[in-house]
Amino acid sequence: MRLAIAGMGWVTPLGTGVDSVWERLLQGEEASATTISEQFADRVYNVFRVSESALKGIFHPRLRRASAISRFAAVAGLQALESAGLKLESQNAERIALIFAISNGGVKYTKRFYHEIVGTGAQAASPLLFPETVFNAPASHLAAILGVTGATYTLVGDGAVGLIAITMAEELMANDALDYCLVVGTEEIDWLLCDAYRLWRLLRVTPPIEPFNKQNLGMILSEGAGAIVLARKGFATIERAHAGGYFRRRAEAEKVLKRILCDLAQIEIDFVISSANGTFVDQAESQALQEVIPGALAYTSKPALGESVGAAGLWQIILAAQALQSKELPPVLHVDQSVPLRLPLSRAPIPGARRGIVLSCGLNQQAAGLRMAIQ
Fold first, then answer.
1. Are 161 and 183 in a shared domain?
2. Would you say the C-alpha torsion 279, 333, 307, 164 has a positive or negative sign?
3. Which of 179, 204, 231 is the last residue of a domain?
4. Model's pTM, two decimal places?
5. β-strand 3-12 against 224-231: which pairing, if any?
6. CB contact at 8 A, 164 and 368
7. Do 349 and 267 fall within a single domain?
8. Which of 200, 231, 262 is the last residue before a domain boundary?
9. Which of 108, 242, 277, 368 could form a disulfide with 307 if both were Cys (CB 3.0 to 4.6 A apart)?
């Protein structure tokens, strides 16, 4: 079945609120990097963080001890519901489902929980911290804050998990007992995550992210959340959500992406929101795009916002929805002009744009895509 986007919410290192962040992207702005360190190691990493001011104005007992990942999700989720004009009350709370897309989880509290056990012993295990170590903690917090009594699910994956969540939402919304589905993707960053991605040779030491560079110089991690309210009517339609596939080796990613694009591009496509982030993903997507739909504009926000992993897929969907509504794309930052793709190097009007593809290739062997349209 076809679902539509009725509302959206966005928390990013470049600010909060869909309209505000979109306008800054159109102006060619990018998030400012800050450094992150660890007292037991000498390595320092650059990251794109969400400012504390972005979380002001949200107060709830459940969030008093919650990790940043849950607070990001709460802000984005509430924004999406407000954007959709949806107020949850006792009579409709069970008619909305909640799907959480997550990748690394609440790393900060998990690290703290096990650090105390290793340092002091099992008796130091904190009953206050432990609930924040499980992957479905943010979903639990958000459902309680919103008063959602319908189905609640948490999907764990890589950067493509947000698009997989849309596929699951389609299945849930086939049930007439549901009117809406709130899909949220969220991520928080920590030194430990940076060090892990460095060991996997996916991280670069300092900005900028240089998309589609043949040298694969690496990415900069970021954090935040994206949320969309799906309904049977809305301003932008998800014409098809492609379940995608898995690749065993990085060299196989291009083949999977080509298959996704071939299935989604059987009708005229105006632009593609890419997940290029300075890693092996870039060349895989570049080759697939050149072969399947070379005439479409391609845009990636990763140089401006960073790689948000669990939140990345929802961010891409928000970008596509905004591009369809405003009929323009922001400039792709820090890209070599010799890249053999149609890229907007400055704020680019796309008059008459009706359809766009969101293409997501994760770092852990998962790829997915979807096609969106506007009347």
1. yes
2. negative
3. 231
4. 0.95
5. antiparallel
6. yes
7. yes
8. 231
9. 277
Which residue type does 138 have? P
Residue 133 shares a structural domain with residue 218: yes
CA distance 312 to 318: 10
Q: Whole-angstrom Cα distance, residue 139 to residue 184?
A: 9
Q: Report pLDDT digits (tens) over 329-350.
A: 999 999 998 999 999 999 999 9
Contact 1, 222 (CB under 8 A): no
Given the DSSP bridges, would you call strands 96-102 and 180-187 parallel, antiparallel or unpaired? parallel
Nearest Cα neighbor of 206 from 215, 214, 194 is: 194
State whether 308 and 327 are in the same domain: yes
Q: What is the pLDDT of residues 121-148, one digit of tens each?
A: 777 677 766 667 778 888 888 888 888 8
Q: In Å, what is the CA distance from 207 to each residue of 34, 94, 185, 278, 306?
A: 10, 45, 24, 10, 9
331 preceded by cis ω (within 30°)? no
